[in-house]
Design brief:
This is DUF2231 domain-containing protein. This protein has 171 residues and is mostly helical. It is built from seven helices and two strands; from the N terminus they run αββαααααα.
């Protein structure tokens, strides 16, 4: 009886991982084997955190410099995020092993939501950066840092758990 159970378990196959393209996950958008998306995401991450920091310093000091710094930081977070998003979307669409995993799509959806929030935060500040900080600007910045962490966590899982977007050739 135990032999029959072992045999039936051995016959179970994950249809997704059995797909011949499932393991094709090397980056297509890269410079010398280094994925562009991985290089670009550091900028929106850093600028999102800098925006929150500048908002907090403006709240603390009342110095208009920090409100202006937050305007520039969130603008760069959004613009660099768009560039990172374009390269990530191209990877998602071109690489079969990335496209086949549902975790990739989860990361994509959360990242699009983050970009929407960063763009809204920037657009809100363009009308008057000092008036925009309190209370809505700082709340959007805090939410943006939370979404950045959530998006980064999922992106990191794709790289570290699934080795997506990495080179298998050891170069």
């Amino acid at each position: 009886m135990a032999d029959k159970d072992t045999t039936s378990e051995a016959q179970l196959v994950d249809p997704i991982s059995a797909n011949p393209h499932f393991h094709r996950s090397e980056s297509k958008i890269a410079i010398a084997g280094h994925p562009i998306h991985a290089m670009l995401v550091a900028f929106p991450i850093a600028m999102s955190v800098c925006t929150l920091g500048a908002d907090i310093f403006y709240w603390w000091t009342g110095d208009a410099f920090w409100a202006r710094a937050a305007l520039w930081a969130i603008g760069m977070a959004f613009l660099m995020g768009v560039l990172a998003g374009i390269s990530g979307t191209v990877e998602l669409l071109l690489v079969p092993g990335i496209r086949a995993r549902s975790a990739s799509w989860t990361h994509f959806i959360i990242a699009v939501m983050l970009l929407s929030l960063l763009g809204a935060n920037w657009g809100y500040r363009l009308g008057g950066y000092e008036q925009a900080v309190l209370p809505l600007g700082i709340l959007m910045s805090l939410l943006g840092v939370g979404f950045t962490g959530f998006t980064g966590w999922h992106g990191g899982k794709l790289v570290f758990d699934y080795q997506l977007g990495t080179s298998s050739s050891g170069k």
